[in-house]
Amino acid sequence: MGRIIRAISALGAVGAMGALLASSVGPTPTATAEPNPIAQWRSYWVDSFRPSIYTPENVDKLVADAEALGANALIVQVGRWMDCFCNRSAFPRTHVAIDPAFDPLDDVIEKAHAAGIEVHAWVNATPMWNAATPPPSPDHVFHTHGETATGADRWLNKRVDGAERVNTMNVMDPANPAAADYVVDGIASIVDEYDIDGINLDYIRYPDYNSTTETSDWGYSDVSLQRFRDATGRTDTPAPADLQWSEWRRAQVTALVRKIYLSMYERKPLARLSVNGITYGFGPQSVGGWERTRTYAEVMQDWKGWLDEGIIDTTVAMNYKREHLPDQQQMFREWNEVLADWQAGRHNVVGPAVYLNSVPDSVRQARAALMPTATGNRVVGWSGYSYAVPSAAANTDPSLADAERAALASAFTQQDPTGADEPVFARPAKVPSMPWKTRPETGHVTGELVGQDGMPLDQRTVSVHDLRTGKKVASGLTDGSGWFGIVDVPPGSWQVRADVPGSHDVRTVVHVRKGRVTTAAFAPS
Question: What is the pTM assigned to this prediction?
Answer without folding.
Answer: 0.92
